[in-house]
Amino acid sequence: MTTARGLHVLWRAMAAAAVVLVALLGVSGPALAHDVLEGTAPADGSSVSTVPAKVTIILSNTPASIGSQINVVDESGTNWSAGAVTVLDNVASQQLKPGAPAGKYAVQWRLVSSDGHPIEGQFTFTALAPSAGTGAVENSSGPSAVAGPVQAVQEPSPAAAEKAPDSSAVPWSVFGLVGVLIVVVIAMVVVAKRRLGAAD
Q: Is this prediction's pTM over 0.90?
């Protein structure tokens, strides 16, 4: 009877450890998921009547404004982005300088996901007429060549709007939770074995 009781105690310890494991997986699961692209304005591959005053990117969650960058580049390689990226809820916007010419534009974006990891992509649109403005822009305040960490990337497919995360993208908090779980399981097993030995 004492042996059976000890085995019951050991079983209860293992069951408690399993419950803790399920709870930790439920907490860490959402943390591993990056935000995904839900839409852009202008739409990818679309034609618009004039160059818009701004472009917008819609994600599944609110991105961070710090560290985010959006370049709006014309066919000559000139970047018409003006100022920093602004974020309102899950929408990131980039203003354009006035006087942008008609033609095809590539929007190269790199945003900081709500989980703290960068995601990037590219979409294109064609403007049939230049943007409202004075036309020619002075060199001192005009557009500059593309520079910075944003580089051209392949267009995201509708099914995947972000680059596949590698193993380095796993948050350190997950490893910490796993470590805590291991310690808890070991402690439970040791206590259960001691009780089993005492019962014998």
A: no
